[in-house]
Design brief:
- This protein has 310 residues and is α/β, with parallel strands linked by helices.
- The protein contains 9 helices and 14 strands.
- The termini are far apart.
């Protein structure tokens, strides 16, 4: 059987590219773990250096993708013929607005080289691995298909959340901005139940469901905007919100209540992540019923652990 051919696309992002894209796209304020397809530039809002470009790449039917140069270069692969499909034509055009898009044919066997780029991660008792690596006998196993939705476990804010939930007594858990489902799977492996994940991006939820099947785990993944007060929010003992400052501030309104109504967000533990170091105090102050009991910092990224006051 003839193997399909692939073309390699290398996007070298330029200063000002995000602003150019914003001029061609309607404004959508999004907190998805996988990023929105149409949104104004907000590089600090998500874990990627160029979330608008990552979102477009993730919307393509790629054979895989990766970041290079601290996230300022994106490399992805398309199977022959995919580039001629109407959605891909538009996405490639918009990527060309963001930076310099280089195109080259791949030699046979590139898939193996790409797989070598994606390595397992050990985070405390957890072993996060692509499906082509074997499990580790002494660690809790989590399989994550690389190149799907946001979150392979390698980024600082994801690792901070994974480290912190290992310090919390298991109970029910709600994963906001669930992306590829890494935090949800880790919670189940650690004994949390039930575990639910919410993401505003249906592509991310679809990818998470696929990863759940690979792990033989059954969290519940939902599509919705958890920062919208009209969206029903499941109760949980622990809430992980790896969604950045702006959506965290909107989420905080649900922890305060409205009129005579009681707050519909009042977990015992609340993990706020996707924050820059300088944003930690502002995020924590938005939850007056909580006190800071822990912080984790890695480079410019900060996770704040809040606990409800007695």
């Amino acid at each position: 059987m003839t193997q399909p051919g692939y073309t390699r696309y290398t996007l070298r992002l330029e200063a000002g590219g995000a602003e150019a894209l914003a001029e061609t796209s309607p404004e959508v304020d999004d907190w998805s773990g996988a990023a929105a397809y149409e949104r104004r530039a907000d590089p600090a809002a998500l874990e990627y250096a160029h979330p608008e470009a990552v979102a477009l790449v993730q919307g393509l039917a790629t054979g895989g993708w990766q970041e290079e140069d601290a996230g300022h270069t994106l490399v992805f692969w398309l199977e022959d013929g995919a580039e001629a499909q109407k959605p891909a034509v538009e996405a490639l055009r918009r990527l060309g607005v963001l930076g310099r898009l280089e195109v080259s044919r791949e030699r046979p066997g590139w898939e193996d080289a790409w797989r070598r780029f994606h390595k397992p991660h050990v985070v405390g008792r957890l072993y996060l691995r692509p499906p082509w690596y074997p499990p580790h006998a002494d660690l809790l196993d989590i399989i994550v298909e690389a190149g799907l939705a946001f979150g392979s476990g390698g980024h600082a804010s994801t690792r901070q959340c994974l480290e912190e939930i290992q310090e919390i007594s298991p109970g029910s858990l709600l994963d906001l901005g669930s992306g590829s489902g890494v935090v949800s799977f880790a919670a189940l492996r650690l004994g949390f139940a039930p575990v639910r994940g919410i993401d505003i991006d249906p592509v991310a939820v679809h990818a998470a469901a696929g990863n759940a099947a690979r792990n033989r785990l059954q969290p519940t993944f939902l599509v919705g905007d958890a920062t919208d007060r009209d969206y029903p929010l499941p109760a949980a003992d622990t809430v992980v919100a790896n969604i950045a400052l702006r959506p965290i501030l909107r989420l905080a309104r649900r922890a305060v209540g409205r009129g005579s109504a009681a707050p519909d967000l009042q977990p015992a533990h609340l993990l706020l992540a996707g924050l820059l170091v300088e944003q930690g105090d502002e995020a924590a102050a938005a939850f007056p019923a909580y006190e800071v009991v822990g912080r984790r910092q890695a480079d410019r990224w900060l996770m704040v652990h809040l606990q409800r006051r007695a």
